């Protein structure tokens, strides 16, 4: 048990370390390297006195003129395209988009399909928009400098569009009233905060070719088809929404940490994390280079994908998912059969253990609702649900999920390690099968741990030593943590604290593979659970009273 907990804590620490943006490259970085230090100096000139600059204001006009001057300084010939754009509610705005092009180096490819990098340059009335989307503007200008010095094979279009905050008007004007400049692929840069890693959170449909390019071009990937599946079902829109409706393929990058500063006066240069700007620029540059290479991004079918601890991107065609899920369920069933054949598995205990996961979920729901009621009653959390000092609250959510896992087996009494293992992974097998057909984009969250659990079960099926049963639990628990912890680590930035259950429940599910190790009533575990409950209560109350 101790070894397993140490392994999980090490993985959690590794996730916290790896899922940070890289340090900003200095001014003296090689010219072909993206440098956040160079980019932020350009952004200082573009933002000037850091006045808010919504569409149609003199301040926005001044920002537009500064962007044009920066492009001209790079030797480009920017074009300002003024147009009237209207949305589906018949609201209209006059916008001025800035378009510049770096011609491709390959004579056979430069006039063919091109890649577009896009960012909006207007801000909300409440703040200067240094992150949203000044960081995107600065990244585009730095990438334009790099490509101007060393053009890729295909041509690259740079779009600085206007009126995004008012209703995506600049993007509408670009696709509806102007030529799209032979663009086939779009890389859109956004921000919903001032810090954090750059996430590739959205793609166009039938994204297998794009994901392949992403895996090839981006060195520190932080992405998941689960992000895409959730975002597609939310009412949020960005400029990429407009580009996708126009038939263009593309991806969205954004950093979402520090959301309490989003759309406020605190979205200024002083609060912009240069590490986030560096990661955003690295990602956009890497993917743009991959898309602008001589090989087109085809393969028009959906993909299932996720990053492996930022080290690489794992992907497969979504059409493979039912077969992979079937293989994982089969491997797990073979392991169960081996244990049953060796008379090491009590079906009665396994049947009782089937209740462990529903109990775990019920306890997690109770803890999540308790946190929500306490924090709302004390005024610690309102709306928007992001706070300036979230650390204590996040710890409380993780403790609630961990305590749910610790308490669930105590309710049922002894079910045996193998019985509990069989009961827990029965639910994972069901989740794998259901998600493979109903929501394949998130199926990897269940499929990968189940496959490892089944393989571990087969490998120790003929062993009876304590080491074997330890591996049977620790190995799949570790792989579950590797797949789940990065997603949970980002949940606060994604959803805030308005519904703590959104963090507590995934933590409890991610820790459910350790239930076999704590199954059965032991006096020391009973005392430990009481202590854990007390620590959880104290932490949650501390979190409630310390949120400004």
Write up what this structure looks like.
The chain starts with a helix and ends with a helix. With 548 residues, the chain is an alpha/beta fold. It folds into two domains: 20-309, Aminopeptidase, CATH 3.40.630.10; 321-545, no CATH class. The chain is built from 21 helices and nine strands. The protein has a seven-stranded mixed β-sheet, sandwiched between helices. A two-stranded antiparallel sheet has the order 8-9. It has helices at residues 2-18, 36-47, 58-73, 130-149, 164-167, 169-176, 208-217, 225-232, 239-245, 274-291, 321-341, 347-353, 356-377, 391-412, 417-438, 444-459, 466-489, 491-495, 501-511, 515-518, 523-545; strands at 79-86, 92-102, 114-120, 156-161, 183-191, 199-203, 249-255, 303-307, 313-317. A hairpin with a 5-residue loop joins strand 8 and strand 9 (313-317).
In short:
By secondary structure, the protein is of the alpha/beta class. It is built from 21 helices and 9 strands.
How are the secondary structure elements laid out?
Blueprint: H1 2-18, H2 36-47, H3 58-73, E1 79-86, E2 92-102, E3 114-120, H4 130-149, E4 156-161, H5 164-167, H6 169-176, E5 183-191, E6 199-203, H7 208-217, H8 225-232, H9 239-245, E7 249-255, H10 274-291, E8 303-307, E9 313-317, H11 321-341, H12 347-353, H13 356-377, H14 391-412, H15 417-438, H16 444-459, H17 466-489, H18 491-495, H19 501-511, H20 515-518, H21 523-545
């Amino acid at each position: 048990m101790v070894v397993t907990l140490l392994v999980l804590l090490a993985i959690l620490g590794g996730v916290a370390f790896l899922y940070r943006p890289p340090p900003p490259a200095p001014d003296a970085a090689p010219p072909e390297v993206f440098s956040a230090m160079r980019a932020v100096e350009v952004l200082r000139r573009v933002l000037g006195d850091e006045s808010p600059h919504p569409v149609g204001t003199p301040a926005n006009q001044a920002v537009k003129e500064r962007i044009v001057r920066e492009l001209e300084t790079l030797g480009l010939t920017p074009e300002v395209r003024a147009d009237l754009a209207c949305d589906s509610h018949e609201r209209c705005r006059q916008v001025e988009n800035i378009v510049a092009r770096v011609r491709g180096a390959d004579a056979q490819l430069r006039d063919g399909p091109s890649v577009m990098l896009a960012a909006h340059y207007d801000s909300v009335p409440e703040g200067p928009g240094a992150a949203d989307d000044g960081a995107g503007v600065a990244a585009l200008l730095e990438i334009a400098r790099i490509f101007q010095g060393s053009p890729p094979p295909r041509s690259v279009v740079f779009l600085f569009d206007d009126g995004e905050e008012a209703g995506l008007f600049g993007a509408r004007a670009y696709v509806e009233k102007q030529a799209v400049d032979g663009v086939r692929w779009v890389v859109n840069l956004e921000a919903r905060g001032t810090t954090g890693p750059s996430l590739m959170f959205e793609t166009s449909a039938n994204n297998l070719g794009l994901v392949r390019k992403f895996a090839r071009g981006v060195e520190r990937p932080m992405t998941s088809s689960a992000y895409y599946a959730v975002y597609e079902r939310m009412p949020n829109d960005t400029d990429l929404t407009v580009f996708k409706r126009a038939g263009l393929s593309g991806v969205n990058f954004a950093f979402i940490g520090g959301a309490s500063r989003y759309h406020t006066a605190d979205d200024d240069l002083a609060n912009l994390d240069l590490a986030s700007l560096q990661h955003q620029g690295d990602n956009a540059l890497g993917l743009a280079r991959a898309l602008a290479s001589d090989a087109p991004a085809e393969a028009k079918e959906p993909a299932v994908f996720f990053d492996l601890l930022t080290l690489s991107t794992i992907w497969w065609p979504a059409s493979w998912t039912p077969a992979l899920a079937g293989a994982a369920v089969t491997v797990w069933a073979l392991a169960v059969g081996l244990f049953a054949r060796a008379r090491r598995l009590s079906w009665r205990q396994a049947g009782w253990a089937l209740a462990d996961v529903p109990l775990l979920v019920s306890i997690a729901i109770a803890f999540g609702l308790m946190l929500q009621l306490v924090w709302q009653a004390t005024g610690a959390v309102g709306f928007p649900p992001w706070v300036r000092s979230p650390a204590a609250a996040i710890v409380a959510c993780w403790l609630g999920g961990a305590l749910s896992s610790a308490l669930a087996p105590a309710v049922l009494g002894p079910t045996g390690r193998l019985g509990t293992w069989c009961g827990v992974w029965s639910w994972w097998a069901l989740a794998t099968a259901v998600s493979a057909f109903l929501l394949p984009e998130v199926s990897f969250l269940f499929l990968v741990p189940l496959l490892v659990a089944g393989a571990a079960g087969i490998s120790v099926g003929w062993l009876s030593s304590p080491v074997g049963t330890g591996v049977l639990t620790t190995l799949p628990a570790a792989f579950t943590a590797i797949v789940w912890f990065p997603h949970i680590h980002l949940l606060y930035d994604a959803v805030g604290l308005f519904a703590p259950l959104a963090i507590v429940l995934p933590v409890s599910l991610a820790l459910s593979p350790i239930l076999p190790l704590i199954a059965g009533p032991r006096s020391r575990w009973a005392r430990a659970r009481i202590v854990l409950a007390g620590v959880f209560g104290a932490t949650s109350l501390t979190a409630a009273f310390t949120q400004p």
